[in-house]
Amino acid sequence: MRRPVFDPDELSSNPVAFVAMLGLIFWSGLVVLICASRIATVFFSAEDFVVSSSHQVCEQPLNNRCETHYSIVRAGGKVVDFVPFGYQFNHGLLVEGTHIAKSAESFAYVIDGRTEQWPYLGSHFLALFGGITGVLAWLFFIRMGILPLWFRTKSE
């Protein structure tokens, strides 16, 4: 095993560094999974519908968690209930009569004849990059021999 750059006795007894490294891999991995799944969901989804109406659905008994449900008419004429995930469309975009079309394998929506990019693409790619950087940093620290020091026994 390579000799670590850091003092093994000081590092292996530092609980703050240990917890920080566990937090780094946990949160970085979580960010990678969430952002990659959202990016893939938008990229591979195909939509073609017209918004016909909307209504609020609130959680009882306090009505403190509300979401908007939309009745949409798909291209085939079928009316379905649609709830976009939190940031799929800009706020106020889904009003009655709005036609939205999106082809699969694209981040662009055609909204009433105007082509618009998915508004949260940049922030998702930035978060994905940060998550991947965190995972790579964690792997780099393993390579330097830092993490195995925390798992050794006192007798070693």
Describe the structure.
The chain has 156 residues and is of the alpha+beta class. 40% of the residues lie in helices and 24% in strands. The protein has helices spanning 8-12, 15-44, 121-143, 147-150; strands at residues 47-58, 66-74, 79-82, 99-102, 108-111, 114-117. Strands 3-2-1-4-5-6 form a 6-stranded antiparallel beta sheet, with no helix packed on it. A hairpin with a 4-residue loop joins strand 2 and strand 3. The radius of gyration is 24 Å and the shape is elongated. Keywords: Membrane, Transmembrane, Transmembrane helix. The chain crosses the membrane at residues 16-36, 125-151.
Helix proportion range:
25-40%
Mean pLDDT: 83
What are the low-pLDDT stretches, counting only 5+ consecutive residues below 50? none
For the record, give the distance between the C-alpha atoms at the N and C termini, rounded to a whole number: 14 Å
**Cα Rg:** 24 Å
User: How many structural domains are formed by the residues?
Assistant: 2
> What percentage of the residues does DSSP assign to strands (E)?
15-25%
Transmembrane segments: 16-36, 125-151
Keywords: Membrane, Transmembrane, Transmembrane helix
